């Protein structure tokens, strides 16, 4: 089997926390063709544990992200198993010793891919779901002159304290399993993965989603327990625990101002984003609640607050689970790209 | 040391699931004096893992629950370590073999305490926080002619599917620790307890509570991590894991209609509640969201929806953590008792 994606070799890549990720690899996939003017570029980063495959639901002919019009780049986040990750990095930086990577590190690596490797100096749109939204905000703050448009959805520019706590619960459940062995497991710590999945289940979808039994009526599961096992445990079990924890650290430490450009001044970092932006929270998202998006928009000069009217919680934004929400998102992206 | 509470011996107590809890014990504490007319009775059940001590913040001279005026009975819930529980029941019904007890079983036992043992036939008010609210609803549905007033706060008449899922996460985190040993631990499975605590932390308080840093500014913790360790882990570690899981099962299976009176007809059970009722959700409670309370009130003939305006999440209702919320609750209870 030939891989459907490419690897950009970053070489020895210095990280914010002082470590150097040796022979760092950035896996990416492109769709469509770069036009002669080199002005039809969309960057679309991945989300927590997602790989580029998991982003494809928002791309297609006739959609906003139309490969017949745009050159769409999906860079895989470090830790997701395709770009450098605990699971695919050779000793000594493997497994539990994989260094801490920030969202800023991710976007700086992506910037090298886009500029050095692909020869692109201007981006039309950066967009992404969840941690893809976090990276979208980073693009805007780190390279404010480089793009016209931003559309982070169900994400934030900085991990909120509540979001941090939710992730502590996921991490604690996963690592409570002694089989995790501080990251030096030989066999999958399946109890910990299943526990993390059950913790996540209450956060991923909203109270109303469960009240209205969309897991049964729309997603077609046989019972709540079937949903917890077949959907949630099934989602977590194939994933590498160290990868999950590496990305979780990236998420918890996400902050567009945690770098030498802004020195922790979050409002200044938001204020520096020049691109026309739609900040699109899910109205019932429990860990990226609309209030946080509203606060961000208040400090951004060119941003509009565009909540997604949905009871699908965080899944209002992906991964293509609910057609009504996909239509809403796609329409807003078309609107933005037409402006 | 003399115990500050009494034990009502229930004898061999038949449970809804078919088991008989042998030599069942109901621990309770009373405040104030039963008057000659025997019409000044308030019943105030306990909450998840709480003991009667943990209910005392709402009782006091000058408060709605004034022991100078009312005879206040706090019955301890089965599983809470004082009434019959996995931790205090002798073999063979001890530990992981403690039988499944419903909220209906709890309230039937409390009814025997109140009628048989204390000789009371009429109750002025039943009130309670969280699972205490669940028991309050049960009092109303099981004994609709027995009381004038009900005031469940931050609770529900039936465990919602989302609430069930949240509790699955807590349970999975606790039991992912191999030291739990399916309930036959010799030493405390502290990793599992700590993990359960961290899972709970995101649910107990609202996103806004954490956003506004009330853990630091109002509760006085030094950092978010200090709050997670000193408050949350400190809260869970002293508790017996089997007790926690016994009460968790009671919670997950709470439903005022799951008995032979209503045969699962939830609306009929709500409709049968005659007492004048204030249903008081916390406006930002993440696991007893206001919508569920509104739905309940819609099916109750004599109920009013009275949300607690607070960003303290579930802790808007207790245990006396926020003075502003205590004042709101106390005022509403005074209003109700004056009617």
TrEMBL record, chains A, B:
Q: What is its EC number?
A: 2.3.1.31
- Give the active-site positions: 130, 285, 314
UniProt domain AB hydrolase-1: residue ranges: 64-308
Alphabetically list the UniProt keywords: Acyltransferase, Transferase
EC top class named in words: transferase
Locate the transmembrane regions by residue number: none
Note the InterPro entries from the entry. Answer: AB_hydrolase_1, AB_hydrolase_fold, HAT_MetX-like
Q: Which Gene3D superfamilies match?
A: alpha/beta hydrolase
Any Pfam family:
Abhydrolase_1
A GO molecular-function descriptor: homoserine O-acetyltransferase activity
What is the name attached to this protein's record?
Homoserine O-acetyltransferase
């Amino acid at each position: 089997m030939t891989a459907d994606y490419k690897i950009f070799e970053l070489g020895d890549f210095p990280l914010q926390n002082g470590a150097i990720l040796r022979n760092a690899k950035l896996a990416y996939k492109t769709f469509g063709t770069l036009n002669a003017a080199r002005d039809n570029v969309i960057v679309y980063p991945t989300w927590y544990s997602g790989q580029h495959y998991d982003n494809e639901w928002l791309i297609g002919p006739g959609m906003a992200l139309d490969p017949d019009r745009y050159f769409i780049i999906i860079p895989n986040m470090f830790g997701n198993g395709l770009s450098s990750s605990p699971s695919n990095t050779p000793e000594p930086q493997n497994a539990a010793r994989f260094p801490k990577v920030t969202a800023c590190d991710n976007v700086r690596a992506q910037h090298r891919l886009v500029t050095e490797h692909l020869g692109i100096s201007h981006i039309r749109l950066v967009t992404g779901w969840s941690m893809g939204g976090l990276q979208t905000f980073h693009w805007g703050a780190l390279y404010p002159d480089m793009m016209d448009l931003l559309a982070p959805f169900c994400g934030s520019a900085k991990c909120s304290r509540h979001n941090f706590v939710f992730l502590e619960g996921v991490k604690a459940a996963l690592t409570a399993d002694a089989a995790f062995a501080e990251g030096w497991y030989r066999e999958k710590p399946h109890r910990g993965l299943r526990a993390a999945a059950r913790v996540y289940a209450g956060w991923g979808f909203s109270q109303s989603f469960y009240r209205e039994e969309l897991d049964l009526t729309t997603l077609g599961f046989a019972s709540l327990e079937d949903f917890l096992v077949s959907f949630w445990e099934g989602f977590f079990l194939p994933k590498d625990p160290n990868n999950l924890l590496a990305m979780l650290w990236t998420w918890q430490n996400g902050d567009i101002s945690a770098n030498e450009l802004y020195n922790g001044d979050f409002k200044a970092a938001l204020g520096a984003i020049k691109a026309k932006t739609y900040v699109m929270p899910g109205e019932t998202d429990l860990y990226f609640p609309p209030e946080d998006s509203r606060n961000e928009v208040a400090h951004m000069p060119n941003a509009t607050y565009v909540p997604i009217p949905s009871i699908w919680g965080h899944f209002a934004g992906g991964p293509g689970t609910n057609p009504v929400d996909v239509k809403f998102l796609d329409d807003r992206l078309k609107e933005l790209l037409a402006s």
